[in-house]
Design a protein that fits this description.
Elements: E1 6-8, E2 53-61, E3 66-73, E4 78-83, E5 86-91, E6 93-95, E7 98-108, E8 116-125, E9 129-135, E10 138-146, E11 160-163, E12 169-173, E13 178-183, E14 192-198, E15 210-217, E16 224-234, E17 240-248, E18 252-259
Parallel strand pairs: 1-18
Antiparallel strand pairs: 2-3, 2-10, 3-4, 4-5, 5-7, 6-7, 7-8, 8-9, 9-10, 11-12, 12-13, 13-14, 14-15, 15-16, 16-17, 17-18
Length: 260
């Protein structure tokens, strides 16, 4: 059976895209340590790292109308943007307030073809707004920066188990940054095995997205390798309350939110 490339922005029941609260799990790393040192804000860094963080806004592809979009940017310029209509990924370069992407990827929801390459240009107002656009295809996306807490993986308590609202997905993040867990494609399906890890990125910038990879097994046609970006959201005490991520393969892209 041929599988069309698909987009999942906020689905709570398909694959890992679980939204909302619920679930539990105890930390295996204890409370945040003051000795770990303070995290840097995007004002404390330079270059493309000043674009790092979480964003929300709008995406418009081929003048089809605006759809709500979420985006993550890492300290090295790696990014992911997703909406119900399309998906972008790549490495962004910065020159003052100008941004460029020479070899990005775009996927369009419902398309029968795999993601294709795209060239993007845009602008950055640090700590405020970021935009990316293209003429082929006709695409615009405008994203507002989401102010993070003062914590980061360097000094935050994030090692724990995270679940979605209906418990079809459960992932455990260990203190060595490995990921294990299970997910279901639907409530009636058998559980798929999930294994992965968080990359050794710069984990010292508040709000900066980290790279992660996941492998799905016992998932039928969705078996395989997935690459993406994620963030932990911390409370005022430096304890992560949830993990959010955008993942992609040649078959599917999705946004997920799991709660501790």
């Amino acid at each position: 059976m041929k599988c069309c490339w698909a987009m999942i922005a906020t689905s709570a029941s398909l694959l890992l895209a679980g939204c909302g609260g619920g679930g539990g799990g105890s930390s295996d790393s204890g409370s945040p340590s003051d000795s770990a040192g303070a995290c840097k804000s995007i004002q404390d860094v330079s270059g493309v790292a000043q674009a790092s963080g979480s964003y929300q806004g709008l995406m418009n592809i081929n003048a089809a109308g605006n759809s709500e979009a979420r985006a993550f940017f890492g300290a090295n310029g790696e990014f992911r943007v997703i909406s119900s209509d399309g998906y972008l990924s790549g490495m962004v370069q910065r020159d003052a307030s100008s941004l460029s992407v020479e070899d990005g990827r775009i996927g369009i929801a419902g398309s029968n073809s795999k993601p294709t390459s795209i060239v993007l240009s845009g602008t950055l107002a640090v700590g405020d707004r970021l935009s990316l656009s293209s003429t082929s295809p006709d695409l615009t996306t405008t994203l507002d920066y989401q102010q993070p807490s003062s914590f980061c993986m360097k000094n935050g308590d994030y090692a724990s188990t995270y679940n979605n609202v209906n418990s079809t997905t459960s992932l455990t993040v260990s203190s060595d940054n490995t990921i294990t867990g299970v997910t279901k494609i639907s409530d009636s399906a058998d559980s798929c095995d999930v294994n992965g890890s968080i990359a050794e990125d710069d984990h010292s910038i508040s709000g900066a997205a980290f790279s992660l990879s996941l492998t799905l097994a016992n998932c039928g046609i969705l078996n395989g390798e997935y690459q993406g970006l994620g963030v932990f959201v911390y409370d005022s005490k430096g304890i992560a309350t949830d993990i959010r991520y955008i993942m992609e393969s040649d078959k599917i892209a999705f946004f997920g939110k799991l709660t501790r």
